[in-house]
Design brief:
single chain, alpha+beta, five-stranded mixed β-sheet, two-stranded antiparallel sheet, about 100 residues, globular
């Protein structure tokens, strides 16, 4: 299956939960060091209300895995970058995400 791309670096294989797409587009526009962001599977959760929250969880082979919470759902985000966890979290805060 071929991934559809938006602005070359936001890979869209699944839909994106409300509020997260704008943050991801801002993140990529402000940080050319981030190679790409691939949103993953969406699952419903009870406590995902209000401002978009992102939790950077574990390192992957080429970056970081994060969990975005918004609009009653959680979504995995795979962020491809050479940055450390603190730098990724700082960049997310800068574009308006609440980092947990």
């Amino acid at each position: 299956m071929r991934l559809r791309t938006a602005k070359d670096r936001l890979k869209i294989e699944h839909s994106i939960i409300d509020g997260v797409r704008g943050i991801l587009e801002e993140l990529l526009a402000a940080n050319p060091e981030i190679r790409s962001v691939i949103p993953g599977v969406i699952r419903p959760v009870r406590d995902a209300r209000g401002k978009v929250k992102v939790r950077v969880t574990v390192p992957t082979q080429n970056g970081w895995k994060a969990i975005a919470l918004s609009a009653g759902a959680r979504q995995e985000l795979f962020i491809s970058t050479d940055w450390g966890k603190e730098a990724v979290e700082a960049a997310l805060r800068k574009v308006g995400a609440e980092v947990a």
